[in-house]
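Appendix B, Record 12. Input sequence as logged:
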Amino acid sequence: MIPSRIRYLRPLNAEEAVSAWRVNPGSRYLSGGTEISTTSRRSASYPVSTLIDIKHIAEARTLQIDGDMLLLGSALPLSAIADSGHFPLLTATIKGIADRTTRNRLSLGGNIAGMLPYRESVLPLLLADAHCTSMLQSPGLETPQLRAWRLRDRFNKRLLLEPGELILSFSVPLSFTTLPWSHGRKTRTGPIDYPLVTLCLVKDSSNFLLGLSGAHPYPLRSDEADDLLSRTEPVDVAIQALELAKTDHRASDSYRTALLKTMLETAIKELS
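Logged structural output:
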């Protein structure tokens, strides 16, 4: 369980949070706390002695339209994003993650940067070519610095962050949120289960954009698959371009392949 003498810090802004991490290297940023709680219950000795609560940082709690962009704070609970209805594909994806009670606590940044491999909420953001704002105090600098970067450039199976880097928000073009989309999710036992396949498909003009989780050991965006689908190649050809998850205790690779084929054909039909 979590040790009784754990240190809890509650900075009021991003600069304080990142500076606190520099003083306490190896500490954890805390937003929803769902993964931290789970880890502590499973481990006899909790490895982190300091938690830095970011829920009171304004940039990390933003949920607003700014010009032609939708801004989503990293510390927002998933349920708050889904309830807003600003991004329908993201809403549909979020509603497949865990149950309502968990989504009331689970944050957007926590789901994307957490330890579980599925990270389903990142799929609509990758499809939308979202950009991110983070803060980091690099060695040799006296104060933390803001950074702006493209999500796809730093997402390779997982979000690649530097030690102590704090994600503040994600920005999505409003024009993308109104494009035709399809979402599907299949599990082994029921709705409250990890996905065998989660599929997000968007049609932008005559082009298809595909995002997958569950069918791989990590969230996947494939330009090659997009190109094949957009050229109306058979679904089988596009699937062959993807490296599907190997057979495990949850499903065989042949079953996942058949499942993905059916879901993808259905999604294309919906958007045609």
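The longest helix spans residues 253-271.
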